[in-house]
Amino acid sequence: MLCKLCKNPEEHSHNYTIFSREEAVRMKKAKAVTSSESSLKMRPALSPEARENQMISLAMDLAEQQLRDGTASSQLITEFVKRGSTKARIEQEILEEQKELIGAKTQSLQSAQRIEELYKNALDAMRNYSGQGETDDC
Questions:
Q1: Are 127 and 133 in contact, with CB atoms under 8 Å apart?
Q2: Which pLDDT tens digits describe the chain residue by residue (138 residues)?
Q3: 17-53 exposure pattern, b = at least 16 Cβ within 10 A, e = fewer
Q4: Which residues contact 25 (CB under 8 A, 6 or more apart)?
Q5: d(CA 113, CA 120)
Q6: Burial class for 131, CB neighbours closer than 10 Å (0-12, 13-18, 19+)
């Protein structure tokens, strides 16, 4: 089939093809994957944490589908409205900052312990070098 821009068949030099409506209608539509089919494709979890993540994923998929279909309960809608609020985002940022702070404190304590051990080793080495020998501090 020629496009409407070309006047005669010799002029038709486009690299694309124009389909008629009938040809487009005859094309087979892609099959939509339902949530029950997608859950069958999931491999079994190898740990309790992985199983929990699978359950959360399935619940989130179901919640999303219910929201899209307009069948979500008021509790579900309220939950996602709360999660999307500015207050919830700020609380999440605070939790992430607290997690980083705890990690930094842990590293600081570990570093202090290593420094203390290095000082002890240095003092012992100086005592041995000066001829005082090993002493029991305990």
A1: yes
A2: 455 555 555 555 544 455 444 444 444 454 555 555 555 577 888 898 999 989 989 999 999 999 999 999 999 999 888 888 899 999 999 999 999 999 999 999 999 999 999 999 999 999 998 887 665 555
A3: eeeeeeeeeeeeeeeeeeeeeeeeeeeeeeeeeeeee
A4: none
A5: 11
A6: exposed
